[in-house]
């Protein structure tokens, strides 16, 4: 699951390789639209890394999917600026959009992306250095406004700008922009997760409104932050492959589900009749993941 917007969920079948199977699904009316194969693919440009986002254009009453593609350079690094293409449900096809001003690399990690205030948000970073002697500096958020169809950036708090970009995840919780920082004792590949810090931006347009909402020690049972619930509890996965609702004050946890922790995902969800009158397929699409909607109280 890549993301959700206005009751429509965007799914990508790329867990074991890219099959170019992309679905916009409305679970309420049990309808889905399968997107056509994008124009930028392996046969056209060779190896690449890509990220997706789904958004709703309220001016055109249109659902849109943005795809940002970083072709692989000869030295194995992602090429910037990337290529970008946009799918519109109303148009029913992909088309190119300009990404010439995007000099940043994004993080392809557990589909860390969210839609808020008309824009798709990804964790990104500036890269410096030459050949394979490179490093990152100044983490930030890369935004794509689905109405204006252009890219922008948003600064993160100072405490998050110089950490490993792969340790950050962006999400939307209770209408606020959230960034989770996973703290490891060693490194992102072999280190043990010991703590995660959840930062929220209470005033979307004010940089100074970033604040640390909660810090959770995960050296015991907990493993990964998934979502913030309306009642203030955290949806997290455990080291025992459980999906939990965790109260950070009492430290009590209630088991919601059990399965593979890497397949747990959650999103805020509102019901909609989108796609009900469209020429879309009307059968349930089966996916091996758990959807945990924030309608839980």
From TrEMBL:
Pfam families, per the entry: FBA_3
Listed InterPro entries: F-box-assoc_dom_typ3, F-box-assoc_interact_dom, SCF_F-box_component
Transmembrane segments: none
Residue intervals of the F-box associated beta-propeller type domain: 4-252
Superkingdom, natural source: Eukaryota
Record-linked NCBIfam families: F_box_assoc_1
PANTHER family named among the record's database cross-references: BNACNNG10540D PROTEIN, F-BOX PROTEIN CPR30-LIKE
Protein name in UniProt: F-box associated beta-propeller type 3 domain-containing protein
